[in-house]
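I'm curious: can you give me some protein's one-letter sequence along with its backbone structure tokens because I've never seen that pairing?
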Amino acid sequence: MVHYWLLVIVVVIALVLVVQLLAQYNLISKRGKILVGIMLLAVAIGMGVFTLFQEKNDSRLTELAKLFLQGKMLVCVVGGESLEVDKEKFNFISGTLTLMGKETSEYFRKTIPLKACELKE
């Protein structure tokens, strides 16, 4: 997530420098400066909203992964089929945030995305 912010900061600084250069040589009007400022503000607000939703989703997936690794039962809906998943039948793959059926279970080679799961109540 940090590299996105660094990229955005670099782009904003570059745009500000370009606008300053254009203003110094009177190639951009006051109205143009205001328009660029409004565009930058809109981009910043959009990025903030996007980041907020991403962090909310990430924290949900992290919590589900923790619960699964603690041995809790999850209910996952895959292709209209509802499955109860636990550590005895599935392995957690952290790189892809998926659950993979163990060789010793009837779900061998079955892959379930963690985002399709909820805690069983």
